[in-house]
Design brief:
By secondary structure, this protein is an alpha+beta fold. The chain is built from twelve helices and 23 strands. The chain has helices spanning about 5, 10-20, 30-45, 115-130, 150-155, 230-245, 275-290, 315-325, 370-385, 405-420, 435-440, 465-480; strands at about 45-50, 55-60, 70-75, 100, 105-110, 140-145, 165-170, 175-180, 185-190, 195, 200-210, 245-255, 265-270, 300-305, 310-315, 330-335, 345-355, 360-365, 390-395, 425-430, 445-450, 455, 465. The strands form five sheets. Strands 9, 11, 12, 13, 14, 16, 17, 18 and 19 form a nine-stranded antiparallel beta sheet that branches. Strands 1-2-6-3-7-21 form a six-stranded mixed beta sheet, covered by helices on one side. It is elongated.
């Protein structure tokens, strides 16, 4: 399995990536990968530590002649987003990722690849194992649970790390040097509803929205991609407003940090409305597909008759739900007025479930400006509270403020131009990197972020560029050789 991956260059990087991807490592379930990484460090005879939250720190002394350089922290996260296509028969808790080569890309069959942030982890493993790579004193920090709360970075206590410079290996464009990122907050809206008997003389339908690209709710939010939960609610709103449609169940989206690709709902309509309902919903579907034909060419929405459900929602709560979901801002909320092309604030309507008398709606609000993040979160909270929901704001984490005077930025900028005869894109990103959190407890540490080109992160279309990984690997090794001297 994955032997063609192990044959790719640079072999140290791809072999460690294959080793890592053989270990199931979903967020919140990192026990096996923590043990894997702990054994990896111990087997190398390196000082290895697991802190109280599960972060793994492996220390390696400087190679001869590099002792006078500043100490470096290499940092990546162990967990990965587990997403699969509905027709994929795959068990993330038991199986390793099934990878293959497709031209210049490494992909996974029907699932996320785990290049985010597995290629960063593999880089660190290869450097730790190597006896030839020149480097200053290293601390390899493998954090946990980055994708669903950044609890690893939040739980890392002051004083554990001794390094002067942190290299975060978690960006997705090989020409980008990251100097800042957005903070975020989780919004969870819940309420109960009274179930009612299915009205007599009705026909039941199953509505399916699928085929959307999905993607990273930070990096990809600027693309204006389709959100399955928003599309589904548009259909439900139209059916309710025009035909008195009743909702039995909704199951849409998944993780907060993934733009939702799929949604399903079960509804009922009076039989006397059957023909008009089918006709008007068909027109609405065509309108949605027309709006997204260039962005979402694989979008598929179908409405088919199905077995009658046992219960439906009460009308009052149903009306509040569809109107509240319609009112939720989704996508880009504000562009940065100071940095060209940077999304400042956004929201992802990530998950909507309705079943057995319970409603749950999950959002992730991001912003590089703390006050703007709070403003949008309060706006969303207010809408749901007016609809009778209980709303919890949790898991908040800070952004990472750019520092254009960073010494390590100067090193990377000059090296990139020398190696590539082109200028790098020095930028802040709208994703949530751990640098902002780590910086709270290590404010004097000079931080920078970079990585190989990855596409479609957080979706089954995730893929990593082979040629970019080669470019990135050479860059990492040169950066380690050129770390500034201690003062």
């Amino acid at each position: 399995m994955n032997e063609e991956i192990r044959a790719l260059e640079p072999k140290p990087l791809w072999n460690k990536f294959a080793d890592l991807n053989a270990v199931p490592r979903p967020s919140k379930k990192e026990e096996r990968v923590i043990e894997f990484m702990k054994n990896f460090g111990n087997n190398l005879g390196l000082e290895t530590e697991v802190d109280e939250v599960g972060n793994v720190i492996i220390r390696k002394p400087a190679t001869p002649g590099m002792e006078h350089k500043k100490a470096v922290v290499l940092q990546s996260h162990l967990d990965m987003v587990h997403q699969k296509n509905n027709d994929s028969n795959f068990n993330f808790d038991q199986q390793g990722i099934d990878m293959y080569v497709d031209g210049d890309w490494v992909r996974a069959r029907g699932t996320t690849l785990g290049a985010d942030n597995g290629l960063g982890v593999a880089t660190m493993m290869a450097i730790l194992e190597s006896k030839e790579i020149e480097h200053p004193a290293l601390e390899a920090l493998f954090t946990i649970d980055e994708e669903t709360g950044m609890t690893g970075a939040m739980g890392l206590k002051p004083g554990i790390l001794k390094g002067d410079i942190l290299l975060n290996l978690d960006t997705e464009e090989d020409n980008e040097i990251g100097i800042g990122c957005a903070g975020g907050v989780d919004i969870t809206a819940t309420r109960t509803y009274k179930e009612e008997e299915v009205p007599a003389d009705t026909v039941a339908y199953k509505i399916v929205v699928k085929g959307l690209q999905g993607g990273h709710s930070g990096m990809d939010i600027i693309k204006g991609l389709g959100n399955a939960n928003k599309m589904m609610n548009r259909i439900l709103f139209g059916g309710f407003e025009n035909f008195g449609m009743r909702i039995a169940e909704i199951n849409g989206g998944g993780l907060r940090n993934a733009i939702p690709r799929e949604s399903e709902a079960v509804v009922v309509v009076d039989k006397i409305q059957k023909e008009d309902f089918s006709s008007e919903m068909g027109k609405l579907i065509q309108q949605i597909q027309q709006e997204y034909k260039s962005l979402e060419p694989k979008l598929h929405i179908e409405i088919s008759e199905t077995e009658a459900p046992e219960k439906v929602m009460g009308l009052g709560v149903q009306e509040l739900l569809v109107k509240a979901l319609y009112a939720v801002p989704n996508g880009v909320y504000r562009m940065s007025p100071d940095i060209d092309g940077l999304v400042e604030t956004s929201n992802n309507l990530a998950r909507v479930t309705v079943k057995n008398g319970k409603i749950e709606v999950l959002c992730l609000t991001r912003s590089s400006v703390e006050s703007s993040k709070t403003d949008l979160a309060n706006s969303i909270r207010s809408g749901f509270e007016l609809a009778g929901f209980e709303v919890e704001l949790s898991g908040a984490y800070p952004g990472w403020a750019p520092n254009m005077d960073s010494p390590i930025l100067k090193v990377l900028d000059e090296l990139y131009q020398k190696m590539n005869e082109d200028k790098p894109d020095i930028a802040a990103c709208h994703a949530g990197l751990e640098c902002g959190i780590l910086g709270k407890n290590y404010p004097e540490m000079d931080m920078i972020s970079f990585g190989p080109t990855i596409r479609g992160a957080h979706s089954p279309d995730e893929r990593a560029s082979i040629s970019s990984a080669q470019k990135y690997w050479k860059f990492v090794l040169e950066v380690l050789k050129n770390i500034p001297e201690k003062k």
